[in-house]
């Protein structure tokens, strides 16, 4: 069993300016009134909208401003809920009901996948999971060690699946540009930008457990005679495994400043772009 760095120790490290990789760029997510949060809302509470914290009666302007600060969507439940909120909005309407983007191509049900394309997707996905799992093993930042042996790891299961395809007579391709690009980005971030790295960590594992599973089922029905790959099987109860990781992510993010949290949320778009490029290999 790998050791888990106690959160109390790791928090002190994250709070140490030496470990603050760089001053986060505060872009659109810095302000809860930004486009991700549905613009200015005067309502006291609404699903997914900003929540106005009770108005300060008088007192100093700074204190009043703080009291009036809008809560970020999901903030009350913990940082994972904030990440989820941003991610769900980046889905297209046909991908998920909370999605807000226009569809760019046919919905999954109308996909025309090929075994060769699916193999390219699996190979590139394996490179990404190998990289993620290597990063948390190495733990350049002590917090990463929290995410060893979560039960969500996919590297070994993908190795088994590729072995199965080989036994079926398929040639296993080398990783292609989308996988290599994503893996390089992860290595780069993991060493200098832990908040952005954690954003990718969350999105990759949680996307696979949600939309990824749905895609795997559809593709298996279409081209694999419903064969259920190891990639889509977990040892133990998946919802419990996910909850364990949510709890750890929430704890790690508790030591982040608001700017660091926003910086992490801002990386979500990049995660969608890079994962989307790998997903599209299924149709190549
Ligand atoms: C064809 C592509 C995709 C489809 C069909 C899809 C579909 C879905 C669906 C149905 C859910 C569950 C929504 C719910 O809880 O009600 C979901 C959740 C989610 N998706 Fe996607 N998705 C896709 C791509 C992506 C990508 C590219 C990412 C980011 C890399 C992503 C990240 C997430 C995350 C973080 C969640 C939340 C999971 C959770 O709360 O446990 N998805 N997706």
Automatic annotation (TrEMBL):
It comes from the Eukaryota. GO terms for molecular function: heme oxygenase (decyclizing) activity; metal ion binding. It is an enzyme of class 1 (oxidoreductase). Residues 1-70 are annotated as: Disordered. Residues 1-18 have a biased composition (Polar residues). CDD domains: HemeO. One of its GO terms (biological process) is phytochromobilin biosynthetic process. Keywords: Chloroplast, Heme, Iron, Metal-binding, Oxidoreductase, Photosynthesis, Plastid, Transit peptide. Belongs to the heme oxygenase family. This is heme oxygenase (biliverdin-producing). It comes from Actinidia chinensis var. chinensis (Chinese soft-hair kiwi).
